[in-house]
Amino acid sequence: MIRVLIADDHHVVRRGLLFFLKTQKDIEVIGEASNGAEAVKLAAQLMPDIVLMDLIMPQMNGIEATIQIKEKFPTMEVLMLTSYSDRDHVIPALDAGAAGYQLKDIEPDDLVDSIRKIMRGENILHPEATTTLEREQEEMENAPHLLHPLTPRERDVLSELTKGKSNKEIAASLFVTEKTIKTHISNIFHKLEVQDRTQAALYAVKHGLTEGMT
C-alpha cells in the first residue's frame, strides 16, 4: 500500500482527494493536514510514503513544509499539488526537494498515476511546470557570461540582494527559509569572489548582472 498524507487548507479539496484516493486498492490516505506546520507534525507521526502538498497555506507554506520534511525524512516523497505554474513557485518547490509538481486541474487518474510513478522513483512535472523550467534554462543560457556560474535561484537571490532586502525579506519573497538564503548568499560570495553583500551588489551593478533579472 502507498501511504498518503494530504496537506491542503481547503476542506473541499481534501474531501475530494480523499474520496477519490479511497477507491484505489493500492493507496491508503492515513491523514489530513490543513496547513504546512500540521503537515510537518503529521508527517513525523504517521510516516507516510508520499505527502500531497498544497503550496499556499496558513502558518507555514508548502515549500517550507517540504524543506523541513525532507531534512528530517529524506526518503519521504512530496508531490506538490497547486494552482501555480510560474517560476517563483515551481523552482523553489523543486529546490525544496519535491519529487513532483502537478496542478490542481490534473485529471484524477493522472494524479494517481503520478503518485505511483513517484513511488517507483520517477520525477513528475505538469507540462506547464516543465515549460517554466525550459524557459528558466533558456534564460540562463542567454544570460551575460559573468552570470553563468550562478544558478537560477542564486540569480534570484542576487537580484533581491541588490534591492537592499534582508535575508528574512528575501526568504519571504522567494518562499524559502532564511537558512536556505544564507546558503545561497554564501555561494554567491564564493562564485563572484566578493566578501560581503555590498560588494556583491556593486559587482552585480558594475557588470550589468541585474539587467533582465526579476
From TrEMBL:
It holds the Pfam family Response_reg. SUPFAM superfamilies: CheY-like. Residues 3-119 form the Response regulatory domain. The keyword DNA-binding applies. InterPro entries: CheY-like_superfamily, NreC/VraR/RcsB-like_REC, Sig_transdc_resp-reg_receiver, Tscrpt_reg_LuxR_C, WalR-like. The modification 4-aspartylphosphate is found at D54. Signal peptide: none annotated. One of its GO terms (biological process) is regulation of DNA-templated transcription. One of its GO terms (molecular function) is DNA binding. Residues 143-208 form the HTH luxR-type domain. The keyword Transcription applies. Keywords: DNA-binding, Phosphoprotein, Transcription, Transcription regulation. This is DNA-binding response regulator. It comes from Lysinibacillus alkalisoli.
